[in-house]
Amino acid sequence: MSVTEAVNCRMSVRAFLPKPVSRETVFEILEVARRTPSGGNLQPWHVHVLAGAVLDEFRALVVEQTKIGVKETPQYEVYPKNLWEPHRSYRFKTGEDMYACVGVAREDKAGRLRQFAKNYAFFDAPVGLFFSLDRRFGPPQWSDMGMLMQTIMLLAVERGLGTCSQECWNTWPDTVGEFLGLEAHTILLGGMALGYTDESAPINKLQTARAELADFCTIRGL
Question: In the chain, what are the domains?
Answer without folding.
Answer: 3-78+122-202 (3.40.109.10)
